[in-house]
Design a protein that fits this description.
Distance between the termini: 12 Å
Protein name: DUF488 family protein
Pfam family, one: DUF488-N3i
Order of helices and strands: EEEHEHHHEH
Strand order of the largest sheet: 1-2-5-3-4
Structural class: alpha/beta
InterPro entries: YeaO-like
Number of strands: 5
Number of domains: 1
Organism: Streptomyces physcomitrii
Length: 138
């Protein structure tokens, strides 16, 4: 698994958080935390049983229009990240992101995607917004 695992300490009574990133096709590691798929589309060729997910938060994934525009073109990543952050600021995406934030406060999570290059994916943006890996691009 390609992981962007980082841990951060909370303040006061808040628990420390661990957010890892991986591909949904990678072997399951129960120690990695809650398995949360954050793609809008179901991964090709993968059964729900084989995915062994705890949650599928498709509403927190980039919109279809943004995903299509980005097309995983590295030169567009910075603008993609900004547009994606804006999407997460309102509507159903904001509500889904808040559910994700609450889940990370409960314990370690593994954000999953079918995307091959994690460093230039929406997972990195989510991890940053969750307060993890703000200076790091894995």
């Amino acid at each position: 698994m390609t992981s962007g695992r980082t841990t951060g300490g909370g303040t006061g009574g808040e628990r420390g958080r661990a957010v890892a990133m991986g591909r949904v096709y990678d072997p399951v590691d129960p120690a990695a935390g809650a398995r949360i798929l954050v793609d809008r589309l179901w991964p090709r060729g993968l059964s729900k049983e084989a995915a062994r997910l705890d949650t599928w938060l498709k509403e927190v994934a980039p919109s279809s229009g943004l995903r299509t525009w980005y097309g995983h073109e590295p030169s567009r990543y910075r603008e993609f990240a900004g547009r994606y952050r804006a999407e997460l600021g309102s509507g159903p995406a904001a509500e889904a992101f808040e559910r994700l934030r609450r889940r990370t406060a409960e314990g370690p999570v593994l954000l999953l995607t079918a995307t091959k290059v994690l460093a230039e994916s929406h997972l990195t943006v989510l991890r940053d917004l969750l307060g993890e890996g703000t200076d790091e691009r894995n």
